[in-house]
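Field log, afternoon session.

UNIT: design team B
ACTIVITY: writing a sequence onto a fixed backbone
BACKBONE:
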């Protein structure tokens, strides 16, 4: 090109702007002034020559580019051919191991294609620009490859169970969508969200695949979409990594859509009976079909040597796991006793191990305070007492009101128509008992038993039932020969909240019988127990709290030795009392009476025999029942005379 140009008296200059042609004058480039000074004909000749040379130059450049392209393609083909054989050898062994997995074959073939299309990534060259040189690749986020061209070669192992020698057992404490089914994470770049396969995160369902997944029903139901998703996963036996917002109809940026993963898992849903009934009724078709096996777990077990040994093993294991001091024999025995007290049964133990664990930790604290190397009996007792002290503010305030005389209670002497019943206050994490004054007034009339609590809308249904049972008892025992013409009012004194339960029905009956007979009842003996129409005393709940509540009130003014609590005979097995109460009973300062019938209770409260009907159908004179029947006859005759007087006056 330069030779042809010089022959035509031109020079060639190659620069960044391309090829430039200059006319020569005396073997040097002509200046613009010299060019303008030439005649028009000579300038036209120079311009025509320049155009001819420029066309020749352009043709030459095209030939050069074609030659370079052809050369580059041949080099690429040679490199690709050489690399193809090498890459096929490397990937061939892996592909052979997965002959029965076409999905893996497809992925590896895509990866081979990506390698062959981007061989420059594997060359040692200072001028390579891999971030712009790739041409194709597996279906991943392009922004991710731009930042890391080797991203397609990275392996994202969702779950690695290679070192697990047993089936996985996964407990998911927070089963939101991402934690349970996995998530596809996204990054924002230039105002656009993108994701790649390295952003796929597993959920507990993936981790439990091939094993067991444990969920709490209430936790799952906190997320409505999760419950529906869980049913779908179990029904279809596959897990799909997807955005939960798609289930709610929200717009979601399009991204990866991984293939579903086959699922083989046993899902165990735990919960209380109320939640089970809710699901079984509200979602009966799906719930009953997907969760076919129901297993009920009791909150208590029998107190047997094996279970006591298991409890001791639990204590030892907890000490090891929590770094606690070991418990000596007496300390462990006190823990077992506490477990029996939790269920209020001498023959059973509680299985609420969370509360037992809390007791162990707190007992260890008190052992630490005393620099003891072992957790002993007194440390467990301190833990129990301090927990009660933290929770019993309401109980203390009520005892203060009794001590100050605000709450009227008598725990000594005898009063007609008045008896101390026992109530339990449940504050959720703490419950306690206290005596409550119950009074009865009887008088002539035909209204029968008047439940003042019911009239004031302070009585629950079971309490109303208990009062109605009293009418059945009185009618069966004293109304066989004449109708009962009686009015009686019953009242829980100084009770301004609701009253429910039938555990005071026997107490109310004693107050009515005392009012009818005129015999005073011992105020130092509090009473609890329900009663049936046959006069049998029936067991109740909260017996330990009730006894201890009466004991604490009696102790305010000093124990006299005549005080105590009367309980149903069936509740004897439920006695798991505080050590101070047990000691007071041993010392004869406090008493616990068990009764089977109302007659037995009357004899304890009045100090008189109840009396049984003789062959003539009457009660022995002086007995409680004799005095009751006598008073009922007096009321009957009084009402009879009253109505006869009305009839005479009308005539």
């Amino acid at each position: 090109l330069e030779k042809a140009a010089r022959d035509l008296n031109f020079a060639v200059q190659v620069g960044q702007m391309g090829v430039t042609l200059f006319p020569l004058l005396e073997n040097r480039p002509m200046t613009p002034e010299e060019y303008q000074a030439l005649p028009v004909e000579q300038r036209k000749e120079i311009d025509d020559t320049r155009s001819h040379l420029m066309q020749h130059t352009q043709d030459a450049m095209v030939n050069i580019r074609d030659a370079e392209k052809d050369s580059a393609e041949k080099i690429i083909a040679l490199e690709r051919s050489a690399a193809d054989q090498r890459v096929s050898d490397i990937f061939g062994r892996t592909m052979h191991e997965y002959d029965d997995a076409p999905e893996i074959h497809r992925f590896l073939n895509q990866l081979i294609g990506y390698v062959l299309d981007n061989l420059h990534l594997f060359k040692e060259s200072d001028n390579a620009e891999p971030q712009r040189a790739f041409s194709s690749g597996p279906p991943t986020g392009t922004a991710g490859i731009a930042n890391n061209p080797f991203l397609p070669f990275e392996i994202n192992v969702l779950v690695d169970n290679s070192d697990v020698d047993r089936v996985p057992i996964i407990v998911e404490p927070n089963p939101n969508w991402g934690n349970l089914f996995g998530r596809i994470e996204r990054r924002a770049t230039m105002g656009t969200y993108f994701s790649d396969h390295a952003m796929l995160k597993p959920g507990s369902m993936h981790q439990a695949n091939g094993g067991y997944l444990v969920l709490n029903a209430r936790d799952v139901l906190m997320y409505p979409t999760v419950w529906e998703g869980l049913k779908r996963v179990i029904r279809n036996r596959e897990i799909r990594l997807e955005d939960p917002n798609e289930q709610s109809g929200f717009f979601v940026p399009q991204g990866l859509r991984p293939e579903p993963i086959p699922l083989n898992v046993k899902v165990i849903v735990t919960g209380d009976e109320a939640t089970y009934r809710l699901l079984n009724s509200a979602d009966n078709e799906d719930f009953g079909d997907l969760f076919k096996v129901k297993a009920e777990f009791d909150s208590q077990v029998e107190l047997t040597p094996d279970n006591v040994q298991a409890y001791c093993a639990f204590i030892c294991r907890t000490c090891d796991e929590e770094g606690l001091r070991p418990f000596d024999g007496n300390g462990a025995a006190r823990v077992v006793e506490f477990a029996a007290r939790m269920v209020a049964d001498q023959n059973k133990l509680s299985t609420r191990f969370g509360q037992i664990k809390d007791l162990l930790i707190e007992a260890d604290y008190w052992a630490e305070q005393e620099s003891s190397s072992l957790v002993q009996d007194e440390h467990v007792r301190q833990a129990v007492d301090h927990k009660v002290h933290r929770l019993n503010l309401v109980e203390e305030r009520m005892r203060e009101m009794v001590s100050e005389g605000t709450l009227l209670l008598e725990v000594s002497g005898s009063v007609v128509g008045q008896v101390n019943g026992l109530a339990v206050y449940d504050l959720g994490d703490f419950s306690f008992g206290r005596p409550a004054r119950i009074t009865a007034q009887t008088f002539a009339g035909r209204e029968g038993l008047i439940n003042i609590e019911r009239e004031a809308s302070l009585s629950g249904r079971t309490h109303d039932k208990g009062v109605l049972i009293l009418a059945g008892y009185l009618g069966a025992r004293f109304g066989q020969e004449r109708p009962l013409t009686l009015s009686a009012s019953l009242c829980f004194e100084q009770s301004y909240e609701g009253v429910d339960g039938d555990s005071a029905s026997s107490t109310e009956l004693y107050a009515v019988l005392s009012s009818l007979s005129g015999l005073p009842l011992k105020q130092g003996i509090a009473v609890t127990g329900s009663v049936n129409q046959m006069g049998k005393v029936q067991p109740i709940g909260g017996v330990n709290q009730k006894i201890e509540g009466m004991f604490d009130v009696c102790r305010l003014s000093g124990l006299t030795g005549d005080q105590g609590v009367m309980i149903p005979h069936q509740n004897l097995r439920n006695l798991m009392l505080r050590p101070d109460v047990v000691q007071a009973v041993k010392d004869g300062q406090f008493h616990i009476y068990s009764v089977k019938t109302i007659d037995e209770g009357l004899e304890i409260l009045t100090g008189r025999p109840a009396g049984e009907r003789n062959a003539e159908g009457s009660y022995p004179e002086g007995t409680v029942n004799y005095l009751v029947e006598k008073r009922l006859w007096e009321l009957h005759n009084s009402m009879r005379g009253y109505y006869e007087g009305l009839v005479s006056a009308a005539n």
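LOG NOTE: The radius of gyration is 48 Å.
NEXT ACTIVITY: expression trials, pending approval
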